User: What shape does this take?
Amino acid sequence: MNDIAIRFDHVGKLYKLGLVGTGTLSHDLNRWWKTTILRQEDPYLKIGETNDRSKKGASEYVWALKDITFDVHQGDVVGIIGKNGAGKSTLLKLLSRVTSPTTGAIRARGRIASLLEVGTGFHPELTGRENIYMNGSIMGITRHEISHKLDEIVDFAGVERYVDT
Assistant: This one.
């Protein structure tokens, strides 16, 4: 993984429609123990249908992503395009560690920030400047680093006139 910045290795994300947990506290604790501590496959994982939005499925489980493998090398610029329901947002949520993969592994070097949707991460009651500092700190950037790059950020975003609004 010398010059590889991001590696997706057979990544899949399965969602259960409706309930969030397994149904019981003991099953939820068992799932947590097996998947988080022992790094084993989810004991309550059931095979789901693929995410075909053109017809109503019968299963209560749906694969948002299934068996995704790719590498992004340092310096590469990558765009993710596709139809609604193709898994673009799910892929970015996995990459940003908003959620975890059901199967496979994701390895990343460096800082990662994904724009999940326009306005994501911006608090409407804060000024542009306050939002820059807040989001920078969420991404692990020090206040000093943010202050050093603030003019570049404001210039790039084209919000100089409104940064204190």
In short: Residues 128-162 form one domain. The beta strands are 4-16, 49-50, 61-73, 103-108. Residues 143-157 form the longest helix (15 residues).
